[in-house]
Amino acid sequence: MNKETQEYNDSLFADDKEICDLLAMEINHNLADAENKIWHRHPVWFLNGNPIVGYSKLKNCVRLLFWSGQSFDEEGLQVEGSFKAAEIRYTSVEQVNKKDLKRWLEKSKVIQWDYKNLVKRKGVLERLM
């Protein structure tokens, strides 16, 4: 695990740390080619400089966010924000369904919107193929 991501996880209370450790392990396993770093103070994984997935500690849960998740056509993910992101929130490690997570991570490799060039395109997202 990336050192900064481990430090982020280690800074959390036990229940949240357990969720984040599991998420990081599964993401690293399923997105082996992704770059992991702290971005906007949270662990995020990138493919070719494009943000794919990340998580953050919110007040009463851990949020797992897929930047292109609205295009996954998955009932388990909820719309987040005004672009193409979707999320799921966890309050215990038992809520993390590894089978669903693996499927979402596989989709995140092939279904991507170009967030990397969002500013250059003045807020217009384009689908990557």
How is the topology of this model organized?
Elements: H1 3-10, H2 14-30, E1 35-39, E2 42-47, E3 50-57, E4 62-66, E5 78-79, E6 86-90, H3 98-110, E7 112-113, E8 127-128
Antiparallel strand pairs: 1-2, 2-3, 3-4, 4-6, 5-6, 7-8
Description:
The protein is an alpha+beta fold. The protein has three helices and eight strands; from the N terminus they run H-H-E-E-E-E-E-E-H-E-E. The chain has a single domain (3-128), classed as Aspartate Aminotransferase, domain 1, CATH 3.90.1150.200. 29% of the residues lie in helices and 27% in strands. Helix 1 runs antiparallel to helix 2 (14-30). The longest helix is centred in the first third of the chain and has 17 residues, at 14-30. The chain starts with a helix and ends with a strand.
Structure described in brief:
Residues 17-107 form the YdhG-like domain. Pfam families: DUF1801. The protein has 129 residues and is an alpha+beta fold.
